[in-house]
Each structure stands twice: as structure tokens, then as C-alpha cells.
Specification:
The protein is 32% helix and 22% strand. The strands form 2 sheets. Strands 1-15-14-13-12-8-11-10-9 form a 9-stranded mixed beta sheet. It has a 6-stranded parallel beta sheet with strand order 4-3-2-5-6-7, sandwiched between helices. The protein has helices at residues 30-42, 55-65, 74-79, 92-104, 119-132, 146-156, 189-192, 195-205, 312-324, 332-351; strands spanning 2-4, 22-26, 46-51, 69-70, 85-88, 108-111, 136-138, 163-171, 210-216, 228-234, 240-246, 255-262, 265-270, 284-289, 298-300. The protein is built from 10 helices and 15 strands. It is of the alpha/beta class and 360 residues long.
Length: 360
């Protein structure tokens, strides 16, 4: 394979002119500690305080990351005039109440995914933010992972021609013990894991016309909800996208790969984070274009990792949009379409039929 110079691709995140907004972290669980806060520290963002209903968790987070304030209550965090942005990293069922309170207090928000587990609550969050004139981002940070961001750049430049087929194939051993609250949860893979892949497929290819999904359990699994899923997205253009996921692969031969085929070429590689989560490995990407260099395969050297590097993306986009009053890349209103896709997949599995996301 030939080496494609890194400068030929445009997938680096550029921070906005102003990045000194005061951030309050609401929710001090694992994802905040091993992903959000390391990314913010790497880019010099200013986290001024944190709050969690478990005060010990908040104190430990503050000590570990050098956060100056631990708020006694959510009200105290929202009353802090030094806070312009709330990074809300809580389970989805707590999000609407916290979001409404924070937006009413005049804060901009970065919300954990899923924005909500039901569309009515998600729509309410979008509506109250719009009426209050506040910006609300969803933390769909896979869009900024090196492989997806690089693939997006190549696709947008016509490197593979018209997209014709896409695959994301994941067969891994997921450490569900990291999220004990998910054990008895009625939704698992698509709502809490593969929502990232579905969002990335939307980011790369747009919204599908139809969704067909089938869900299953692994023999003897302790989890209540689906841990094996196969989902097909059909587009009016003729593009088909396949997402196949298995969370109980104990064979020692796990993988997480993608392949995006176009009329003029192909992009393929690995999703590094899914190997030994959350440490993972770097993404990889190889590509071939019948028009750019028909006799060559390019091995693209990617820099950064999904965790923690991609986690700066939603926050940086939020800060930039506050300054220019534009539309966020992962705006909550756009995220409603990702949630409709997730719900369409669940309805498809329940009804044993293909579903149009527009039905929801």
C-alpha cells in the first residue's frame, strides 16, 4: 500500500476563537472521568465546578481532575455566574428535568446521548431550548472519531463516487459491568451503544427512507435487553447500509470494522475503540479510488483516538456556535432524527416489518 500524506485529509478539529467558557459538569460517572474531562484538559478548557447526587463521586472527580468547586446542589451549580455551559452526563431518564432547569437558568448545554429514551421528552428539550434562545448539543462524538471524520472528508470530496453500500460490523466482548444500571434496562444495544453508529451513518450518508432491524439475545446472557442486532438502512438513492453488532463474542477473535463502497472506490478500516474498551487502539483506514489513482491502495495514517480525542468535538462545536449563532453539528434538533432512527429500529424488530422513520 502507498502512504497517503496526512495533510491530504481534513479531519482535524479546529477550536473556535474563544474557548474560555466556564463549564459545570453535571454527573461524575465513568464517561465524564475517562473521556469528557481528559479531552477538555488536553485542549485547555475551563471546568469550573462539578455536581453529582453522589457527593463522594463529585469530590473524587474534582480531586482527580483539579476542578476547583464541588456544588452541594444542582441549584448551586446553575446559580454560579461563572458557568456558561453545563455538560450534563446523566442517564437519559434524568435528562429532561435537568435540561429544562439549566436552560431556564440561562445555560447552554452539552447533553449525553441518548438525548432521551422517548421522542416526546427529546422534542420538549429542543422546544424549551429554542424558546429560551440557548444552544443544546448532543454528545454524538463518534462523528469526530478519526476514521469517521476522515471517511466523511473523502466521501464529501467524491473520492469513492456515489455511495452504494455501507457496512459496520462489530463482534466484541462489551464490559457491561461498567454500567450496572443497564443490567435490567429494557433497551441496550441500539439505544445505548449502536446509536453512535446509526448517527455516524446519518452523518456520512443522510437519512434513510426505510429501517429493518432484528434483535436477539446471546445464550445465557444476564442482560435483559438485546445484545445482538442486525439493522439495514435503505436509501432512496439505492444505497443500503448494514449495521451488525454482537456484544457477547468470547472467542478471542473480536472485530469492529467498516466498509463504505462507492461507484468509484472504497473506504475501509477498523473502529479502534471497540477493541479493549475504553482503552482501545488507534483507528485505521485504507482507501482506493478508481479515478484518483486506479492502481493504488492508500493506507491513511490517522492521528488521535475516539476516546478521549473525539470528545472535544461536541463541546468545541457548541462553543463555536455560541459565538457565531450558527447550527451545531450535533444540534439537539438534528439528534431527534437519530432518535427516530433508533425508535424505528425498535419498532421494526417488535412488528417484524420495515419502518419509515418518518412514521415516528
Amino acid at each position: 500500500m502507498e502512504s497517503l500524506p496526512i495533510l491530504d485529509l481534513h479531519y482535524y478539529l479546529h477550536l473556535s476563537a474563544r474557548t474560555d467558557y466556564g463549564i459545570a459538569l453535571i454527573g461524575c460517572g465513568g464517561i465524564a472521568n475517562y473521556a469528557h474531562l481528559p479531552a477538555y484538559k488536553l485542549h485547555g478548557l475551563r471546568v469550573v465546578g462539578c455536581y453529582d447526587i453522589d457527593r463522594q463521586a463529585a469530590q473524587e472527580t474534582a480531586a482527580r481532575h483539579g476542578i476547583p468547586r464541588v456544588y452541594e446542589t444542582l441549584d448551586a451549580a446553575l446559580a454560579d455566574p461563572d458557568v456558561q455551559i453545563c455538560d450534563i452526563a446523566v442517564p437519559a431518564w434524568h435528562q429532561r428535568a435537568i435540561d429544562e432547569q439549566a436552560v431556564t437558568a440561562g445555560k447552554h448545554l452539552l447533553c449525553q446521548k441518548p438525548l432521551s429514551e422517548n421522542l416526546a421528552d427529546a422534542e420538549a428539550i429542543v422546544d424549551i431550548a429554542r424558546r429560551a434562545g440557548r444552544k443544546v448539543a448532543a454528545s454524538q462524538q463518534m462523528r469526530w472519531s478519526p476514521a469517521i471524520a476522515a471517511a466523511r472528508d473523502l466521501i464529501q470530496r467524491g473520492f469513492i463516487g456515489q455511495p452504494a453500500a455501507a457496512q459496520i460490523l462489530v463482534s466484541i466482548t462489551t464490559p457491561w459491568h461498567m454500567w450496572p444500571w443497564l443490567q435490567a434496562h429494557p433497551y441496550r444495544d441500539l439505544m445505548c451503544h449502536s446509536i453512535h453508529c446509526l448517527d455516524s451513518l446519518r452523518y456520512l450518508f443522510g437519512d434513510p427512507a426505510w429501517v429493518t432491524s432484528r434483535h436477539a439475545h446471546y445464550p445465557g446472557q444476564q442482560e435483559r435487553a438485546e445484545t445482538k442486532t442486525i439493522t439495514v438502512l435503505d436509501y432512496d438513492s439505492g444505497l443500503q447500509a448494514l449495521l451488525a453488532v454482537n456484544h457477547h463474542d468470547h472467542s478471542g477473535d473480536t472485530y469492529a470494522t467498516f466498509r463504505f463502497l462507492g461507484t468509484e472506490g472504497v473506504i475501509k478500516g477498523i473502529i479502534g475503540l471497540r477493541y479493549d474498551y475504553p482503552l482501545g487502539r488507534p483507528d485505521s483506514l485504507q482507501c482506493h479510488s478508481m479515478t484518483t489513482a486506479p492502481d493504488m491502495w492508500f493506507d491513511v495514517r490517522l492521528e488521535g483516538r475516539w476516546i478521549p480525542d473525539a470528545f472535544i468535538g461536541p463541546m468545541a462545536s457548541l462553543m463555536e456556535t455560541i459565538q457565531v449563532d450558527g447550527t451545531l453539528l450535533t444540534d439537539a434538533a438534528d439528534n431527534l432524527q437519530t432518535l427516530r432512527l433508533v425508535h424505528a429500529a425498535y419498532r421494526s424488530a417488535a412488528d417484524h416489518r420495515s419502518v419509515r422513520p418518518a412514521e415516528l
